[in-house]
């Protein structure tokens, strides 16, 4: 048989590619038509009001620019079950690519999809307190602001997002560092059980003993096992809190780094206290800021937080406040409608490394200063033993760590897509340089927080080989066709590791 010329090979490849694209488009179109029949009034299409409202409500602008073939606006768990059944084999000859949206606070491609189907859980936003007020059942589509509005007046709270705009579903499956983390652990460790729709369309509750393996795998395993529609979470008494943001000039950097180092290293850690130190450039102006909170009724900074309040500042918003008010302040500082990128690392609580981290970030910004609307920042978030020792029934693999850690978050926010490459490549280069420096100083920890990680990173692999193998076994057991690995491209997948 004669070999094909390069031109004919190229034509053949193009023909196959176009055919594949059309096949997916027709499959999605047919699937949307079926969904409309099975879920009348629940499916919206391009140029409809509901479709446009759903798209415009994403946090990251990149997400608003993806256009699914249709959006399933689920009102009940049964709606989700029916949608999953239609989207997957054997109903479809091949799975139609789809995404699941809870709060919509993820980055590009996390909860939206071009040309596929989106299952929008926004209407699953109920917040119901148990009769004994020991637990609260929260719909996966709720935002943490919805939760705090219900719980604050009752003198209750839960470990949740530090922004009212963050969704319950995404954070609860990622890990979740909250104002309460030193007292009760991460959000995943306070979950009693999760109502989930499996790839078969079956609805299960992970609290049932027969799903003990699934219950553990989802705690940090993100969207790899099914669609979470409801969370039952342990309530904690909350009689008041104190906190806000302190803004400082950049010439206090040395004092800031020393304070966050001491705060993290303190062996008599006050479990009511949290601090999050950030440095940022915005409109070519630099600032340091500390987001501090104390989840106990006080009217002035308690002893453990005074090392931050005694540093000369520009101004602060510290006051007695509810959890909702503290989280709402954070949300106001991170509005919708901008392009977003975040990256993460974890390292040991080493002061010399923190100085290196600051210097690397500070030297990266000047070439980016002319980019319109750019905010370029990094944060240092303590993970003291008070938090680490309360983890364990999850996938994060932090419970045996004997030394306090620092969670590093690198963030970029900007306006124009024309600047995507410049911002992203600079941020990625900074991340990689910082990672190499931490590794050279023998201070790098493998953990990567999935809620902050960039698509270039492998947070699931950072949980370790044993946990990855466990999650893969659970995935094969409950999703033998691997629907949530192959047909749900958003997020991080279980094949993202070398073993």
TrEMBL record:
It comes from the Eukaryota. Keywords: FAD, Flavoprotein, Oxidoreductase, Signal. InterPro entries: FAD-bd_PCMH, FAD-bd_PCMH-like_sf, FAD-bd_PCMH_sub1, FAD-bd_PCMH_sub2, FAD-linked_Oxidoreductase, Oxid_FAD_bind_N. Transmembrane segments: none annotated. GO terms for molecular function: FAD binding; oxidoreductase activity. Residues 64-238 form the FAD-binding PCMH-type domain. Residues 1-19 form the signal peptide. It holds the Pfam family FAD_binding_4. Belongs to the oxygen-dependent FAD-linked oxidoreductase family. This is Putative oxidoreductase.
